[in-house]
Amino acid sequence: MSEGDAASRVSYDEWLDALADGDGFYLRNGEDEATVPPAPGRGGLEREPLPGTGTIEAVSTIHVPHPDFGDDAPYAIAVASFGPVRLTGQVRGVDPEASDLERGLAVEPTVVSKGENEDHTESRFVGFIPVEANPSER
Q1: How far are the Cα atoms of 52, 83, 104 from residue 100, in angstroms, in the given order?
Q2: Where are the domains of the chain?
Q3: Is 94 left (phi over 0), alpha (psi -120 to 50) or beta?
Q4: For residues 60 and 120, what is the distance between their CA atoms, to the nearest angstrom?
Q5: Lowest mean per-residue pLDDT among 14-28, 57-71, 105-119
Q6: DSSP assignment of 60-85
Q7: Is-contact 131 108, C-beta < 8 A?
Q8: Which of 59, 73, 90, 118 has the fewest CB atoms lying closer than 10 Å?
Q9: Distance, CA of 7 to CA of 59 (rounded, Å)
Q10: pLDDT over 90 (residue 1)
Q11: Cβ count within 10 A of residue 80
Q12: Are strands 122-130 and 85-91 parallel, antiparallel or unpaired?
């Protein structure tokens, strides 16, 4: 199996593990395609390091959340560019109503854990910490 075929078989949980360990990456197929796992059926993808800092492209404050996130509301969700890929995540460590939470804000990726699901697996997802945030929030 080639490295590209192995890269396309990386699961979302494996990708989150790498991101949590500071080894975030994305998958690239030449100049045409850049994505994050999973990427089943896409051959020829190579791992590339995910930039450590991204830029918020869009942000929205959630006031009426899914019940799993009820205790977090209000909270901000953002789309951030990290080189050739965009990630969606919950913005952490800031007031979601703050006027400085806007396009162009520099953020670092992180992994947020919401605890255990009904099937006894850990619920994890992408989060962003503004670069200017308190280091204890990272």
Answers
A1: 21, 22, 10
A2: 3-49, 54-137
A3: beta
A4: 30
A5: 105-119
A6: EEESS--GGGGGG-SEEEEEEEETTE
A7: yes
A8: 118
A9: 30
A10: no
A11: 25
A12: parallel
Q: Which residue has the tokens 């080189």?
A: 83
Q: In what order do the strands lie in the sheet with 25-29?
A: 33-35, 25-29, 46-49
Q: Are strands 25-29 and 46-49 parallel, antiparallel or unpaired?
A: antiparallel
CA dihedral of 53, 55, 58, 60, whole degrees rounded to 10 = 50
- The pTM for the full model equals 0.83
Q: In residues, how long is the chain? A: 138
Q: Which helix (H) or strand (E) holds 124?
A: strand 122-130
Say which residue, 22 or 4, is predicted with more confidence: 22
Alpha-carbon distances, residue 38 vs 25, 49, 90, 116, 124 (angstroms):
12, 16, 20, 22, 15
At 56-66, the pLDDT tens digits run 999 999 999 88
